Amino acid sequence: MNEIKTNISIIVPVYNVEKYLVRCLNSIFSQSFSGTFEVITIDDASNDNSLSVLKNYKLKAPQLKIIKHQTNKKLSCARLSGIKVAKGDYIMHVDSDDYLLPDTLENLYKNCLVSGADVMVYNYIRENKNGERFIVNQIKEELITINKEVVHQFFLGACWNKIVKRSLTENMIFGNIGINMGGEDLLYSSEILLRANTIYLSPSYYYIYSFNPKSMSIINPVEYLRTQITVLNSFNLLVINSNPTSSFTNYTIDYLEKWLYFEIAKIHFYYMDSLEESKEIINQISFIPIITRSRILRLENALDNKFISLCEVNARLGFKLCLSILLRSYIKKIALIFKRKCVV
To answer: For domain 8-210, which architecture applies?
Structure first.
């Protein structure tokens, strides 16, 4: 008996998201799609009820596939576990606390077939914790191109704002080392872009990204910096294997570097006791071949002076983010003073 062809494989990594998981799955299984799709969930050793939610959902959606990691392998490995068993012509990633808009699958698949593109990148809607929505309209005009430099700026932000031919995901460097938030999306997107021939940019939006501003401050900056050693080593290997242009390499490092400065500023204003450890991490990064001496000197200057770190954040990410760092630092100091007075 011939196996039914699968058009789209949807990969959903799961870790401690019991609160949002049903919403995510409902948005997928309620799609009106004339083709066929599979949903592959990967429970990355959750310690809440996420796995039970998946098993209960499978009772009403038997086609749901569940992969269970016995230990937490991190987000990149969870995505790769899904990629390895995917059978669809195309692969898309949906984070388990996000969800799809109606008719997303139908529109994405139709546009992929018509354009013949290897990758389709699209806009999305950002939703805050109060349910307020904001259209993120980064892509202004429809474009089909083979020029990777033109699309680079729209490509690096996430795994979930694109649909990709599965053939591009075979034997990837991405996912062989476990990485959580802080670079796994950059590695995936960079490797896919380097492998792609034709890229389609769509100004339409299909995805709801649930955004909580507080989540940006949850990341431990020292842990983030340490993760970048792995990210940059993996990107260095990708550069060796793919031999991209110097502008491609530099643009990607510039993108990653702006978040390094953001975390360095956080260390100055919230985690001063981690400063020496951070300097040692930057020293380790200096030995990665794709990182030039001039880049390291600027990072070291930012670690030596908190005001330089803020200037670097302002230059790369804007004044509002600088102001948020200062305000949070001020509030933290006021709270500490108040706490001490209460103790006395």
So the answer is: Alpha-Beta Complex (3.90)
